[in-house]
Amino acid sequence: MKRVAVIGLGTMGPGIAQRLARGGLVVTAFDTQDDQIEKAKAMLPLIAGALDRLGITPQPGGEVRFTASLADAVKDADLVIENVPEKIEIKAEVYRALDGLIGPNTLVVSDTSGIPISTLQEHISHPERFCGMHWSNPPHIIPMIEVISGAKTAPETAEAIVALIEELGLLPVVINKDVPGFVENRILYALLREAIDLVEEGVIAPEALDTCVSWGIGYKLSVIGPMALLDVAGLDIYHSVASFLNRELSARADIAPFITKRVDEKRLGLKTGGGVYAYTPERAKELIAERARKLVAVRRALEERDPS
Ligand code: NAD
């Protein structure tokens, strides 16, 4: 693969585009909103700084070119990465627009966070050349990418995406069943449901919960995954704790009032100056920069750790 089109330049698109360009690919980037294109251009130097700190050296020939139309972006593309909002009708519109613009060998992937790939496949005219390629945010820093086949995905399509991820020096994780949310988000949402419930029930304050998770299990999980953790802790220990604890855990199927109340009040998080916590615009910017800095430092430490 030499040429990749990234469609949608919001939270995810710019980091994906820049990471692919670092790997020597010619990336064409498109968004329907001019201001999003301008924002993406402004972000590229910051993203490049993080990639430099990660020690990811630029491969020859790689570049990001911004285009003014979808047709220009996907012309001669070997791969199209769709990064538009998580709404089936918006994604379907992009897939319809690709008809007649892409060649017979072009692969198309969606960065959907959890819409089943078989559902999205209903809206594309070449479903065998379509699969899920789910990056994690921030995509230029997190190395793991989920690859998901739908019912009509040809095995060669997913294989080509896995090969591309490996060539970039990133970590493909193949998901065997096309379940909603795939795996990363199912685990995250299970954790968030319990965390929100504990805060809502007054068991713990939000700040204390964040300390508990980040410096307890969060810190540990970046070194040893949950399945290996079972072995380290002992399956007998899990068996006895789970025998009374599983039934205590939140199993609510609706969304907790803690969230719906804030959403109704337009307290959406960083973008509105507050959600769980309050943020000044300066603090919001600082937090994003701090997150990137710390993620780079942690990744470097994990990659350099002594295998013994
Ligand atoms: P976003 O809303 O920040 O950005 C989407 C961009 O798509 C916007 O800039 C919008 O102008 C553009 N767009 C809308 N319609 C378009 C069209 N027809 N053609 C071209 N551009 C169009 O969204 P995001 O957070 O970057 O998410 C994109 C996808 O990636 C979603 O499917 C999301 O679920 C997934 N994802 C998001 C995250 C995350 O943390 N934000 C993580 C992993 C995956």
CATH architecture of the largest domain: 3-Layer(aba) Sandwich
CATH class of the largest domain: Alpha Beta
SSE sequence, one letter per element: EHEHEHEHEHEEHEHHHHHH
Low-pLDDT sequence parts: none
The average pLDDT score comes to 96
Share in β-strands: 5-15%
Query: Which homologous superfamily in CATH is the superfamily of the largest domain?
Result: NAD(P)-binding Rossmann-like Domain
Spatial order of strands in the largest sheet = 3-2-1-4-5-6-7-8
User: What is the general shape?
Assistant: globular
Biggest sheet overview: 8 strands, mixed
Structural class: alpha/beta
Helix content: 40-55%
Q: What is the subunit organization of this protein?
A: single chain
Characterise the protein shown here:
The chain has 308 residues and is an alpha/beta fold. It has two domains: 173 residues, Rossmann fold (3-Layer(aba) Sandwich); 120 residues, N-(1-d-carboxylethyl)-l-norvaline Dehydrogenase, domain 2 (Orthogonal Bundle). Strands 3-2-1-4-5-6-7-8 form an eight-stranded mixed beta sheet. Helix 6 links the parallel strand 7 and strand 8. Helix 1 crosses helix 2 and helix 9 crosses helix 10. It is globular. The two termini are 37 Å apart. 27% of the residues are buried. The mean pLDDT is 96. The protein binds nicotinamide-adenine-dinucleotide (NAD).
